[in-house]
Amino acid sequence: MAEVLKPDTRFWAVDKVILTYFSFAVVVILGWWSKLPDGPGLLAANLIAGAVLIYEVKVPNRTSWGFRNWYALPYVAACYKEMALFIHAVRTTDADQWLSDLDFRIWGVHPAVWMERIHSRPLTEFLQIAYTLFIPAVLYVAFELWRRRQFKEFQYYAFLIALGFLASYLGYILVPARGPRFLLKDLQHFPLQGLWLFNGMQSTLDRLESAHYDCFPSGHTELTILAWWGSQMISRRWFRIYFAYTPCIIFATVYLRYHYTVDLLGGIATAALLIWSAPKLYRKLSPKGL
């Protein structure tokens, strides 16, 4: 088993990615200061978060090891909330109609509407559960690597997932869209219906995500593929389990009316690009000997 690394005051690859995001965020905040609802608060939050990261790296203490390995989780989650504010300030139009039209040109139908013909309560319930388990599925690989003390693999996976989330956030600001359940609502003939948990799960996700323009690329598709790819660091059995789970969540994104199919293609392309490029980027950004 891998040994716990000694305190290291050099920036890891994930640190550099997160600090680059903070630099980008500061530029956006200053550039669109008058359009942001709380410019001073956002600026202070980014500067403080960056300062805490730098402190934990440069001044090792009893909290540094745990912080440096896990801080990306709350940081990336906060960036997601922040990006919603950025999109409203930076963009004055959305891309929903363009994405929907592109979908229609590809298929000759609106896929989210067409899938009404295969609607069933058990299928809706199953797919909503699969969709809701997205974050736990992505995090499970990290927790399992940590539990097994595979710290080098854990740190690479943390880098890959953080990079994946931040790449999707860039897509959201470039191609802001809310999804077919909003744009195509009037074309749907009936609301989705599940069995027992569907309404509760969907309403919870709505409270967390419905105000966000977070469709392109599909983060659920991208990050689930990255988690599937990363699961091979745990075992072949988990790699097969994730291989079975991934198509379910990809199908669910359209069936449940969260995404256009072009969002899925964007998510698949982004995941493929990161799987190919992340190892080289990780080696380049990591300090020697890490």
Low-confidence stretches: none
What is the CA-atom radius of gyration, in angstroms? Answer: 20 Å
Q: What is the number of helices? A: 14
Structural class: mainly alpha
Mean pLDDT level: 90
Please tell me what the overall shape is: globular
Beta-strand portion reads under 5%
The helix content, as a percent range, equals: over 70%
Distance between the termini: 16 Å
Largest sheet: none
Number-wise, the strands total 0
Order of helices and strands: HHHHHHHHHHHHHH
Question: How many domains comprise the coordinates?
Answer: 1
Brief characterization of the structure:
The chain has 290 residues and is mainly alpha-helical.
Question: Could you explain the architecture of this structure?
Answer:
The model has no long low-confidence stretch (mean pLDDT 90). The two termini are 16 Å apart. The protein is mainly α. The protein has one domain (13-285). Helix 7 (121-132) crosses helix 13 (236-255). It has helices at 13-31, 39-58, 64-70, 72-90, 96-107, 111-114, 121-132, 134-147, 151-174, 180-183, 198-209, 219-230, 236-255, 261-285. The chain is built from 14 helices and no strands.
